[in-house]
Design goal:
single chain, 117 residues, 5 strands
Length: 117
């Protein structure tokens, strides 16, 4: 079963969020084993001021632990090369993890976690 990662980014003041979202979408789509990718600007409110952010996603084929490290390294390169992005966070399985702290075990789909009953 494919894994979908939801990505949250803040943008630096004065950044063209629409252009940056298009650039980010292209970069995400080029990642290894990505089946679908998207990114779009969204308005956020912070203490009454409206700021722009970007929400993205990527759906990857089922990932084994050995491939997960390659995908994470490529994702980090896309984020680092996208000037104007800040506070990149990946949301997966209900957890939010900063991209800089993402580990292969966070996205590998070898065995789903057993739920406590």
């Amino acid at each position: 079963m494919p894994t979908t990662l939801t990505l949250h980014f803040e943008t630096a003041p004065g950044t063209d969020a629409a252009a940056l979202a298009a650039q980010l979408q292209s970069g995400l789509a080029a990642l290894p084993d990505v089946e679908r990718a998207g990114a779009q600007p969204v308005a956020t409110r912070d203490l009454g001021a409206t700021e722009m952010a970007i929400m993205g996603f990527l759906t990857v084929a089922p990932i084994v632990l050995t491939k997960a490290a390659t995908i994470i390294d490529a994702l980090k390169q896309v984020v680092q090369s996208s000037e104007g992005l800040r506070n990149a966070i990946v949301e997966i399985h209900g957890r939010k993890i900063p991209v800089a702290e993402l580990q292969p075990s966070d996205i590998a789909t070898a065995a789903p976690a057993a739920s406590a009953s």
